[in-house]
Amino acid sequence: MTMQRSDVIPLGAHMSLTVTDFEVDDIRFPTSEQLDGSDAMNPDPDYSAAYVVLRTDGAGGEEHDAGTEGHGPGVEGHGFCFTIGRGNDVMAAAIEGLRSYVVGRPAPRTAADLAALYRSLTHDSQLRWLGPEKGVTHMAAGAVLNAAWDLAARLAGKPVWRFLAEMTPEELVSLVDFRYLTDALTPQEALALLRAAEPGRAGRTGRLLAEGYPAYTTSPGWLGYDDDKLVRLAKEAVADGFTQIKLKVGADLDDDIRRLALARRAVGPGIRIAVDANQRWDVAGAVEWMTALAPYDPSWIEEPTSPDDVLGHAAVRAGQPVKVATGEHVANRVVFKQLLQAGAVDFVQIDAARVAGVNENLAVLLLAAKYGVPVCPHAGGVGLCELVQHLSMFDYVAVSGSREDRVIEYVDHLHEHFADPAVVKNGHYVAPRAPGFSARMLPASLAAHRYPQGPVWQARRTPEETGR
Ligand SMILES: [Mg+2]
Q1: Whose C-alpha in 50, 88, 328, 397 is 20 to 30 A from the C-alpha of 138?
Q2: pTM of the predicted structure, to 2 decimals
Q3: Which residues are catalytic?
Q4: 3-class DSSP string for the chain
Q5: What distance in angstroms lies between residue 198's CA and the mean position of ligand 1's atoms?
Q6: What is the pLDDT of residues 383-437, one digit of tens each?
Q7: Domain that holds residue 280
């Protein structure tokens, strides 16, 4: 059953709910065994989620309907941030440290509630020392905020993209922390951008529901895949309706030239091929390497160098002909601001779970719109496709108003663990209709992949570890 918006009765619309509990889990998938997700800097990722559930005193419960069709609005908020294995326990501990900001407090429902929660989570006077606004503590704030947005959107009976897209420009502006941004974007400018997009919202919502949002796929291009698998998956991607694929590069130039040539031959000249170095190079190395790959017409070079190196990205962009993209490891809105101010990127790649959740990503979407730079989100990993689709769809409806030159990354694995998985048809994400952030993993998947006690991990322990 596909839930239509008109079917949804906001749960507890007239009730005041309290967040009663906060559950944090270390969830890991042994993806390194297949080299899924392998790239020049991350050869053996075990895709993982530091996962948080906000429980409320609302009647009913989600457990019994999780995993069945027609999951309706519930009384829990689910969120997470993504890691690639070791350190996921550190993330979980950092999330646990934010418990007191949520438990025992009213369930967030409005823009004002979500704005206040964002500010409290990112400005804890002691935790802030560990950032500020970057790294583990910041990502932890993002996980909790994502769970809060899931909860608020569920209570409103709307998917997050629509929950956002139906807020007023004033509400949206109130969600952003403009501290450190006003030299590039003032609240008044943001308001003007959002007001200018307002008359077209209804039409674009209709087009989004009918046509979806363009996707590209990274599934063919993991560095650990052999040439045959690369060619086969590249051809399959085109047959599946994708107009862009992405290849990992940066380990060996001769290999990259061969793989890119094979991929180009497999997909033909009309399909875009992006390449991704995952921060492998210094500036000069990036320029040299990309100059060598340029004849195969890559559509962008992603993460050529350190995500902190704003001027380095500008130099790479100036020094070779391929367009530059970055963002999945950009720590916060301030670095995004500088990348845009410096003219360092052609594409901004937000990540749903790197910065402080929806609120900070809204700031980045507004900055990108101000500078006229397309946003093409990062969405490998586990659950990132599910989350970030909402942000791009909201951007299309209510911020940039455009899908031109914009694509959301898609990687076709681990979706089976989600109650409301991302759906891509004919190269386009289908707009989610179920309430919430599409963030909820199935209870059975959580139980199986809990680290280290879940059965998936117990089965992998060595005799030495188990004492047998
Ligand atoms: Mg990448």
Answers
A1: 397
A2: 0.93
A3: 248, 378
A4: CCCCHHHCCCCCCCCCCEEEEEEEEEEECCHHHHCCCCCCCCCCCCCEEEEEEEEECCCCCCCCCCCCCCCCCCCEEEEEEEECCCCHHHHHHHHHCCHHHCCCCECCCCHHHHHHHHHHHHCCCCHHHHCCCCHHHHHHHHHHHHHHHHHHHHHHCCEHHHHHHCCCHHHHHHCCCCCCCCCCCCHHHHHHHHHHHHHHHHHHHHHHHHHCEEEEEEEEECCCCCHHHHHHHHHHHHHCCCCEEEEECCCCHHHHHHHHHHHHHHHCCCCEEEEECCCCCCHHHHHHHHHHHHHHCEEEEECCCCCCCHHHHHHHHHHCCCCEEECCCCCCHHHHHHHHHCCCCCEECCCCCCCCHHHHHHHHHHHHHHHCCCECCCCCCCCHHHHHHHHHHHHHHHHCCCCCCCCEEECCCCHHHECCCCCEECCEECCCCCCECCCCECHHHHHHHECCCCHHHHCCCCHHHHCC
A5: 32
A6: 999 999 999 999 999 999 999 999 999 998 899 999 999 999 999 999 999 999 9
A7: 198-447
